[in-house]
Amino acid sequence: MTRLTRNLSKLSWVLLGTGAMFLASCSKNNDVAAPGLQSVNGRVQADVVVPDGGSVDITNNNGQGKVYRTGTVYRVENFKQIYSTDPGQPANGTFFWRFSDNDAGTPASYNIKFSGVATGDITAGGTDELRFVDKAFSSVVAADWTTATVPVANTIGMNTVVGTGIPPAVSALANGKGWYIYNWSAGHTVTPVSGRTLLFKSGTTVVAFEIISIYQNQVTGGTFPYYHFRYKTL
Q1: Between 159 and which of 34, 97, 178, 191 could a Cys-Cys bridge form, CB atoms 3.0 to 4.6 Å apart?
Q2: Using CB atoms within 10 A of its CB, is residue 234 exposed (0-12), middle (13-18) or buried (19+)?
């Protein structure tokens, strides 16, 4: 049995036995305000400068992983942190990211937060907003924000759960407005919704981002959570 199966199976029992407590823990940090993006000439000013065609290690704020850049697109590989304050979650269950810095954030300073089941809930802090659009990442433009779908409680998480014998407590987490599919009968794996791009807005600045994988080295069913995602300022 893989570590993923053991951990997500354990999460399933937590959901069944203490669903209310678990759901509360997934949103307990929603009141932590995230500062707005710093913009220069309409673009995000980053504290960590990644050279075009190069990469930088993620080391600040107990972060791990690497950030790559190709033109205006940044790609984050194997991102994780050590923060783990919410009960009922796997180890390293709450991560923070700042698009404005190209770097790991903190509970007091972040643009988006990863938490919840399989660390799969993505939340924006403060007055910042999240939306999503079913459009290829490469084709998304700033104007898509106006017609993009608004998620539940400014959080994008489980879209659907597939398989047999799915407990009602697990089905209840799938709201059709998420970024991932939870494969209940296929090793309790998590896969992104194909063609779905997430949008983050702070002030007038819109950032498009796409989750690629939550597994170390993108090996589905392997060690998790290790986030892989790419983003660009529109």
Answers
A1: 178
A2: middle
Sheet arrangement for strand 64-70? 55-57, 64-70, 73-80, 227-233, 205-213, 196-202, 129-134
d(CA 29, CA 46): 25
Residue 51 is classified by DSSP as: -
pLDDT single digits (tens) 111-158? 999 987 677 899 998 899 999 999 999 999 999 999 999 999 999 999
DSSP H helix total and E strand total for the chain: 2, 17
Peptide bond into 51 cis (omega under 30): no
Q: Are 172 and 184 in contact (CB under 8 A)?
A: no
Number of domains in the chain: 1
Give the domain range for residue 202: 3-233
Buried b (16+ CB within 10 A) or exposed e, 45-83: ebebebeeeeebebeebebbbebbbeeeebbbbbbbbeb
Evaluate whether 201 touches 178 at the Cβ level (below 8 Å). Answer: no
How distant, in Å, are the alpha carbons of 137, 169, 222 from that of 18? 37, 10, 26
Pair type for strands 43-44 and 55-57? unpaired
